[in-house]
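Q: Give me the 3D complex with zinc ion.
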Amino acid sequence: MMKALTWHGKHDVRVESVPEPEIIAGRDVIVRITSTAICGSDLHLYDGMMPTMESGDVLGHEPMGEVVEVGPEIRNLKVGDRVVVPFTISCGTCRYCKMGLFSLCDTSNPNAEMARKVMGQSPAGLFGYSHMLGGFAGGQAQYLRVPFADVGPIKVPDHLTDEQVLFLSDIFPTGYMAAENAEIGPGDTVAVWGCGPVGQFCIQSAWMFKAGRVIAIDGVPERLEMARNCGKAETIDTTKEHVRERLMEMTNGQGPDRCIDAVGTEAHVGGSFDSVLDRAKEAVMLGTDRPHVLRETILCCRKGGTISVAGVYLGFLDKIPFGAFMNKALTMKSGQTHVQRYLKPLMEKIEKGEINPAFVITHTVSLDEAPEMYKTFRDKKDGCIKVVLKPNA
Ligand SMILES: NC(=O)c1ccc[n+]([C@@H]2O[C@H](COP(=O)([O-])OP(=O)(O)OC[C@H]3O[C@@H](n4cnc5c(N)ncnc54)[C@H](O)[C@@H]3O)[C@@H](O)[C@H]2O)c1
Ligand SMILES: [Zn+2]
Ligand SMILES: [Zn+2]
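A: Here is the predicted complex, encoded as structure tokens.
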């Protein structure tokens, strides 16, 4: 048996003893987890927004550790290797994997039929992220079974610490893909909604794509401070300023060239009429999401600009100003991150010292403290920005 963080319903996660994973397919490996993180995406599960979760599901999709067992078909990894594991499970050989669209893998979701009913087609299976997306046990546990391990995990050189490379599993590639999807050109003004861990990596990545200005938007003081200090961004505080008016002032009435939504479905309910309505509809189960930020990006973006949606949305969104989107000739790109595509190039940036992703970490605790830390992270208490768990410490 091993210790794992399990989901039991809204705001109910527990550390429990569960059976250790075993190799069940030739391309599996088992990883003993040394470090694993809590993600903003986990909060959608914690807050009970994501359908098809079952009591006892093991959470977590930002893991790394040491390979302790390899399946008979694995040639690229051996026992003792240190690896970071992408949150996307991808076969490497289907049409989508071949195009580099790893989060759209056609074969890794055994419950594809469930996803098809809701989305038309099924995206890839994800670790610890509902039965509709595969029902795979997650990595907030002492051990993790990694399917298709000849495609996903990347080996880590000895001289890099867990903290330097852990976020290759999700949030660094996610911020980077968000910046790439934003189609940033040299000198562009980029606005980033949300200064959580994902927003921080969007800001860092926007500069890598040669942005001229980065404007970061949030309402949490220490997150705005990190955006200014580590991200060299200008900031807008949603608790004190009107976002659209302020953005127009800052851009000569034009609006930002590129807008990145790094908030997603759980936008704060502010004073705005639409966000209050979202909350009310959600409370009576009439709405699945609170897409206030998505609306705001469409209304703020300059004509002919691009909106990149990294924040996760779940269902059928309401009151999207699609007329503005169409008439302003905007482009929108989105997706769960094709993590495998970015592992090597971003590992190189870390090795060269161009970035140390550890800057977002504010809390490092044992797995036993995970339930408490979910709450702290969700409520943004104690200056919490990113939590790293040590399940085997
Ligand atoms: N596309 C992907 O593959 C992928 C991967 C990881 C995370 N995500 C998603 O990215 C989003 C952010 O993740 P995170 O880990 O940074 O989460 P987080 O919850 O820590 O950060 C969200 C931030 O948005 C801010 N916010 C809320 N309402 C806002 C508003 N109206 N305007 C501006 N800011 C607002 C919050 O204060 C918070 O700082 C989540 O939706 C998560 O699911 C997507
Ligand atoms: Zn994540
Ligand atoms: Zn595939």
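A quick observation: The chain has a mean pLDDT of 96.
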